[in-house]
Amino acid sequence: MAVCIAVIAKENYPLYIRSTPTESELKFHYMVHTSLDVVDEKISAMGKALVDQRELYLGLLYPTEDYKVYGYVTNSKVKFVMVVDSSNTALRDNEIRSMFRKLHNSYTDVMCNPFYNPGDRIQSRAFDTMVTSMMIQVC
Amino acid sequence: MDAPEEPQPPVVYTMENKPIVTCAGDQNLFTSIYPTLSQQLPREPMEWRRSYGRAPKMIHLESNFVQFKEELLPKEGNKALLTFPFLHIYWTECCDTEVYKATVKDDLTKWQNVLKAHSSVDWLIVVVENDAKKKNKTNILPRTSIVDKIRNDFCNKQSDRCVVLSDPLKDSSRTQESWNAFLTKLRTLLLMSFTKNLGKFEDDMRTLREKRTEPGWSFCEYFMVQEELAFVFEMLQQFEDALVQYDELDALFSQYVVNFGAGDGANWLTFFCQPVKSWNGLVLRKPIDMEKRELIQKQEATLLDLRSYLFSRQCTLLLFLQRPWEVAQRALELLHSCVQELKLLEVSVPPGALDCWVFLSCLEVLQRIEGCCDRAQIDSNIAHMVGLWSYAMEKLKSLGYLCGLVSEKGPNSEDLNRTVDLLAGLGAERPETANTAQSPYKKLQEALSSVEAFEKHYLDLSHATIEMYTSIGRIRSAKLVGKDLAEFYMRKRSPQKAEMYLQGALKNYLAEGWALPVTHTRKQLAECQKHLGQMENYLQTSSLLASDHHLTEEERKYFCQEILSFASQQEDNPGHKVVLPMQFARLKDLHFDPPNAVVHAGGVLTVEITVCSQMPIPVHVDQIAVNVHFSIEKNNYRKTAEWLTKHKTSNGIITFPAEASLFPASQNSLPALELSEMLERSPSDNSLNTTGIICRNVHMLLRRQESGSSLEPPSGLALEDGAHVLRCSSVTLQPGANKIAFKTQAKEPGTYTLRQLRASVGPVWFVLAHIHPIVQYDVYSQEPQLHVEPLADSLLAGIPQKVKFTVTTGHYTVKNGDSLQLSNVEAMLILCQAENRAVVYSNSREECSTALLRIQSSDKVTSIGLPTAPAYHVIEFELEVLSLPSAPASGGDTSVPGTPELHRKQKDSQRAGHCMVTTDHKVSIDCPWSIYSTVIALTFSVPFRTEHSLLSAGTRKYVQVCVQNLSELDFELSDSNLEDKGHATDLRLAPLNTQSQQLIHSKQSVFFVWELTWTQEPPPPLHCQFSVGFSPASEEQLTVSLKPYTYEFQVENFFTLYSVRAEILPASGAEYCKTGSLCSLEVSITRLADLLDVDKDEALVESEDYFSTKLMYEVVDNSSNWAVCGKSCGVIAMPLAAQATHRVHMEVMPLFAGYLPLPDVRLFKYLPHHSAHASQLDADSWIENDSLSVDKHLDDQLDCSSLRSRGSTHSTSSSEHKGLPMPRLQALPAGQVFNSSTGMQVLVIPSQDDHVLEVSVT
Description:
Helix content of chain A: 40-55%
Largest sheet of chain A: 5 strands, antiparallel
Strand order of the largest sheet of chain A: 2-1-5-4-3
Number of helices of chain B: 29
Helix content of chain B: 25-40%
Subcellular location (chain A): Cytoplasm, Perinuclear region; Endoplasmic reticulum; Golgi apparatus
Radius of gyration of chain A: 14 Å
Order of helices and strands of chain A: EEHHEEEHH
Largest interface: A-B, 25 and 33 residues
Structural class of chain A: alpha+beta
Function (chain A): May play a role in vesicular transport from endoplasmic reticulum to Golgi.
Largest sheet of chain B: 7 strands, mixed
GO cellular component, one term (chain A): cytosol
Strand content of chain B: 25-35%
Radius of gyration of chain B: 63 Å
Oligomer: heterodimer
Shape of chain B: elongated
Organism (chain A): Mus musculus
Keywords (chain A): Cytoplasm, Endoplasmic reticulum, ER-Golgi transport, Golgi apparatus, Transport
Number of helices of chain A: 4
């Protein structure tokens, strides 16, 4: 499954970012941050079409030798970025899509929490558990 | 028919390949036609319908015409498609039956037999007709016969296999037609053949593919078969279809690799797992890389070979399809997947070999694309290429690190060996690029050859990549590459070049709030700055890093120690200051004592701040200081008081907002929306035009975000100089919260603003440039003040009231013997009580002491001795004052009580309703601190309001006085008395009040009644004064005697002159009045006295021996119980004699059943219009009277008079009414008319059928 999952605010600062293994955390931070370039590009390229078709999934942002970075953007321009190991060939587009949808649902739940301040870092345990379930378990 | 044993040599695969069509028969004929044929055939496209539901395509056909040979026909099992003859044509121009029978028929038969033997059914016989030939031979058969014969002989059921081409070399319309028919036929047959043969081929191929699970199946064999199909499609210019073949092969192979990874290995795949020995990259410059193809054919290809070949074919086709950007994209995918596949298949690869392969391939793809696109195209599609650039750069970098080209000392022998091995794997340069100077091969070889060359190539690549990223707006990617470059520079010991890139990247990360990259980059920057010797920057970065929680404890300690050791080193160099922004510590809150942060001059103020140190270890600070800005503001106290309620918590603690460094500053510093509603009204009629919400701080919200320049505070911080500094020396800041208290004695009055917080460690000064929100304290100096205010809401006149004196000493110190001198006012007494105490409070409202007041009164002055009190204290005491009721007015003007001023107020207040009458007393006070007197006005309210009224019972008269208590207090009334002021001897007032003492509650009234008797008729006017003693009901004992409350009034004309009596009688014969039926109303007006003085007015008519006066009566029923039928009013002449009675009869109709009150009968004096001056007056009085009633009376008048004119002979009066002078009505004074039937009721019973009663009264 995913090795890094990030939720990024409209203003491009991370609301939530988790990666595994933790040693390469920094690398993933750089990777996710860089991928925002492509996210921005795709959003502006899609422009109105995106709004009309309500297609939130941005697809593969860019592949690297070892990882594939996928993107997803909500209507409020909150971005989800997921990094998947390239060697994990079992993950097809459809699986990625459904993972994003799951992530989006969980994020919506977080936003619905009246005690959550939009724009704050996400510290919800439920969200954390969900993300954990989508990441590789390092044993 | 012996077929040659040797397999046919491979055809040269170039784009010149065309489908093969064989020609048999008359070769000379064909040669003559060939140029036209080859030119005409591709001219028009033909629709190719495809099997398997594939979309039909328009296709331009071309053919390679070759002479028919039996060897050309494929043998059984030969899968070659490129050499496959798709159509066989036999040419003849025979027109002679004899010749046909002799030679042509045999030849045709032989040809047909060969075709049949190879089961080829795609053939065509062309008969060329030539008019010229026909003319030569006269006995020729009709031309059709030869064709018929051929058709008959060879084309059984397939007559379309024989076509006629007439005069092919002429330029006539018939020729054209015949050509067209022929070409169409030829194209159709060719396509039929394609469909059939390709279909068959595809079927075979599919069959072969389905066998892939069988053990002996070989991917390479299958590859060659499917590629054959791809070739044919390519030959037919169907590049899309050709590409599909390769994509299918690609997918098939990829799937096998994936399956292999999942443990499902195919035997043939193990062959591809042989160790990589050659990594010479992709070759894209030839349409077909025959070397690699041969390797595949021989089943000797490695994974990289297969992939390279496959991609080179895909690349070629994509370029034919004008899709170069897809090449770039696919190339990147290919390179990534190859690396992955090699890993997955666990192929042994020498270190660096793949890097070489990827590097070469990237450059090869880029060069290939650049070779076929122009500059503009490339520039607009950088986004597709930049990935390859950055990949190539990455690989070159890792090669550089691998071969020791990045290290300072250069490569060692081990590195060199590795380099040699890598170069060996490249093999020799390929011939097609040998002459290109910038070939990937040469580049790589050069880059690996020396440290300098590597640096050059690496920098070239990096800069190109950064430039490309920047140009397409991928700033983040550009920054990341820049950071890599910075790392490279750091290794090359050129930190000055690295700094720029690090700063750029750091700014980017800070702006977007990415904590981890910020920390990492900052760490690199710190190292860079240290190398550069930028001490201030380094210390600043260090202080940031020392307080960065993303670093380990050790790292933070290290950076903290760096600062401290710098500080200790520089101690011997006094005067040199290093000013740094304070980032290691955060100001958390600030606490003032006194809490309101207001202190009087000379007072002591304490400021306690809480500073959160983020340092990992305790830091000893030489001094902590707060720079204070002083400004003189005159209105400081009030401003501060207002400000306090707004900004400061009541406990004097100011909390500074936590700056979460995680979020970008742009996010934090944005103020909240300040929305307010906006209504815009039209200026003319004030109607609402627009409404909306406006944002008041748009300028704050929408201003352009400075691109992070303000995020990293500029190092050029200045220490503010100022005389006012709060200091605290030698403080050790522990990690976490530290409380530091500053104490200061206030000096000059004014506002002090806390500006800078700074902490010094040796020569290092940490400065918090601005304390935000603004923190201020105020020092004030106050003039002494005296306040006098009533203790209750309002002071009541007549009873003792408490007044509070407040002396605010300000800067004045009250000495022993200081006193307030109050000038006495006549009507206000200051009551001196024995137990008056003064209380002294401190500035913060704490009670200090109490003292007895010394009050000394003289005639004019009351002196109050003040207790001693220090400056900025408050003395409070209370005094009782009594406002005496104003002296009763003397003399003849007795109708007006009190002073004129008072009277006016009374009038006003009566009009306003229940307001109390007030009197003001002005007291002038001399204070010891001032030479001027203070004048204080005290307002007292009279608690009562009094009204009188005259009551009649026949001829007996009563005076009623109503006293209303308007205050909130209850009073006890006593000794009520009504006294005739006129001292008329023949008038007597007999009180009917029993109680001498009476309680009057708040907002309630008490009535007093006296009967008025007189001895002489008519009685004179009564002028009297009402007085009543009062005291507050709650007070038990009053020390002073209170003056009674008085009220003066006058009663006149109270003698009864007329008695009115009304009676309602049922209709004659009826027992009761009934609703709806007429009843009679009898009104009798009786004169009770003879002519009196009061009757002597204009209405008086003197005729012969008796006097009469004119009266008007009017029957009014305000409650609509009665309908008056006929006229309701009339004028009567009343004789002025005792017991003279006038009776009026009227008809009224009850409208309701029940006990109904009688209608009112009103009596007016009817004044005629005698004189001109009277009429003038009249006009005024008409107006002054209720105009509505005037009109009404006028109508009545007319009505009455017309009626009267019928009854009597007063015809003149009617004409007079039209003139301007009109008669007027005057109400009789209340006492003169007594209505004896007031309050009487009459019983009305409902009529039997009065469910609905309609009465219309006109």
